[in-house]
Amino acid sequence: MSEASTCTGAQLIWESLLREGVDTVFGYPGGAILPAYDAMVSYPIRHILVRHEQSACHMADGYARASGRVGVVVATSGPGATNLVTGLATAMLDSTPLVAITGQVGSALLGTDAFQEVDITGITIPVTKHNYLVTRAEDIVPAIREAFAVARSGRPGPVLVDITKDAQQSRSALDWEAAAPKRHQRHLPAALDPEALAQALDLIRSAKRPIILAGHGIQLAGARAEVLSLAERADIPFALTLLGLGAVPATHPLSLGMMGMHGEAWVNRAIQEADLLLALGMRFDDRVTGKLKEYAPHAKKIHIDIDASELNKNVPVDVAIAADLGDTLRALLPQVPVADRSAWLDTIREWRGDSAVRDIKNMPDDGHLYAAHVMHDLWRLTKGEAVVVTDVGQHQMWEAQYYKHDGARSLITSGGAGTMGFALPAAIGAKVARPEAEVWVVAGDGGFQMTFAELMTAVQEQVKVNIAIINNGYLGMVRQWQAMFYEGRYAATPILSPDFVKLAEAFGVHGQRVECRGDLASAVAQARAEEGTALIEFKVEQEDSVYPMVPAGAALHEMIRRPNALAETGSDPH
Amino acid sequence: MSQIHAHQVLVVYTDDEPGVLTRVASLIRRRGFNIHSLTVGPTERAGVSRMTIVVDSEPARVRQAVEHLRKLVNVLEVEQLGEVPSVLRDLVLVRVATAPEVRAEVLQLAQVFRAAVVDIADDSLVIECTGSLAKIDALVDSMRPYGILEMGRTGAVAMARGSRALKPARRAVPLRTGTSPEAMSV
Q: A128 is in which domain, residue-wise?
């Protein structure tokens, strides 16, 4: 279509998406978005029909996290739009670039409580970076262009564009250049402050016991190489946040593993004893700091994050740098002296103590099936090369502990929001983004039941994911808290599940059940060999808990350790 | 200008378009601040509005709110007054009960505050006064014994002192993350 001729608003939506590089959208049609759907068929864009709009958001989220591209969601007005809210909040808290396009009732009906009218721009203000209500065809292209720019720039996040039905139906010229966005640049960080860099260098030079706290921002900034250079050059070990897993490789000799509430005890101890924290693209969430008053009391702190509002928010720091992580490290690196900190590294190794002996790979099969075994074996059988998408709860923590993520964008999980039901749809999105990757869903029996209707989406769209359901018959993480902090009163945590194998069959999906560790490898091999989506239900120990654990509100070193019978993750993961 | 206890003053320049007030107010509420007053109006630049927001909080927490406000797409710039010398003005209209025997007294008091009498009725006066928050508070307190029948305050409008204007927009940085697979930050 030539630039001079006019298009309908509906066509302008797809023209804009195409020009933004979009090849796939996840959505669900309805009355107010019908003109856009009608126009869609003329454009080379794949539409994935979901079974619930919340899942469309999670799919776009998984797509974006797996690829680094912007995920796109399309939904209709009213309930179609409100169903996106949980997905938008999930993307907001985990900084996923996402653009949601919703239909809206005709502009003459706005504010009249018309059929399927809700004020979705009002509703989503706190869970989006920005949103737009578009009532004229000529405003569609500028709004969508700016939405993409806002979603990608700075700290990424979701943006919603609500377009009235009449705006989709009326016509306007397409002037791409005139619609170039500008406002997203208002808040990008200024040039690096040389004084702050000099202070950071001084702290790094004089530190005896430094630790890098590696977060999700490393992945978002594409700063993996720079962070590794810094760690290797200055001989600084790194601890990772949940979303940081995979941002730098788990099997790197300087990798300590995950920090925080379910991090290993020696990792948290190292943070508590450190004299310098280098926080890179992370935000000192309460799940990683524990009690703030007693957090890393001996450490000077350097915090580098693109989002200035995260600096000095939870933890006051000595040097705060609001900037792109890659830019900052490239400026710092030439001046960081090569150092040998083997004394500090030896100390941390000592703190690992007997964990190496009790490592999971040394544990005999005692006939019980532990979730930890499933994760460890899954890691081994996939050679650590799968993209694993986890749900929320105990299995999420076990996966984080026992599946060693080396590859960037190899773990996708809802960290900030903790959204149950995230895994299956997000995995479908991830697989669509990276069809060559082996994608595994790891979900609990509770979370899987929230969104398992998307099995049908996987079948209809011929998307192959492998699914591991860790079934312990409880909402396990809540049960664990009830056991530890509520005297074992299991209020509303025992949960029944359908026969997952039969359920899989009903969807036309290959299903298997594994009840002992001996059957695990062959089931995994079978699932991987299946052409389509395959599901394995692992019936694991019912009342197993995630250890170690920092109780909520306790200091980081006050951990509940594993009972002796349980495996640690202590050894060199090779 | 008199110091206001625990009050922090923000001046926020925004796009003049629908919904901006909601975004700013929503953010301030969400981050746990109590808005003491909020005024909004046009500026010398077409398309740009100016808000003066007075919140009750610690300066450090307010600095945090400033950073959050700076992330709003519609916000051009935020200044935290109190960190710089500034003038701050509030306007009040107050209707005071004035029985004949106290009318002279009230008029005298109004004069002390350089307040203007803008309406006279048989049993009341409407007084208009502009000044710092503290001055307006003092005026209102002094009128209270006579009986305040009605009162409206505009909330503060503030401006930094000296020869300074709105800071230029921050240096633009080109987009880093692309949409093409080559731009994948892996």
A: 6-186
H helix or E strand, kind and range, residue A107: none
Those residues whose C-beta lies under 8 Å from the C-beta of residue A350, and which sit 6 or more positions away, are none
In contact, A88 and A98? CB cutoff 8 Å: yes
Q: B167 in contact with A at a CB cutoff of 8 Å?
A: no
Q: Which residue has the tokens 């056991």?
A: A483
Distance CA A561, CA A519 (A): 30
Residue B180 pLDDT exceeds 50: no
Please write the tens of the pLDDT for every residue from A181-193: 999 888 777 789 9
- Cα–Cα dist A423/A421, whole Å: 6
Which among A96, A108, A166 is positioned nearest to A412, based on CA atoms? A96
Same domain for A96 and A48, yes or no, is yes
Q: How confident is the model at residue B179 (pLDDT cuts 50, 70, 90)?
A: very low
- Residues 177-196 (A) with a CB less than 8 A from some CB of B: 182-191
Mark whether A95 and A235 lie in a shared domain: no
In terms of domains, do A177 and A199 share one?
A: no
Tens of pLDDT, residues B57-66:
888 888 889 9
Tell me the residue ranges of DSSP E strands in A297-357: 300-305, 319-322
Q: How many domains does chain A have?
A: 3
Six token digits for residue A473: 């018959």
Considering only CB atoms, which chain A residues are within 8 Å of B25?
A: none
In which residue are the tokens 């909040």 written? Answer: A89
Tokens 């797509």 locate to: A63
Domain membership of residue A243 (yes or no) is yes
Q: What is the pLDDT of residues A251-270, one digit of tens each?
A: 999 999 999 999 988 999 99
Q: Which residues of A touch B68 (CB under 8 A)?
A: 309
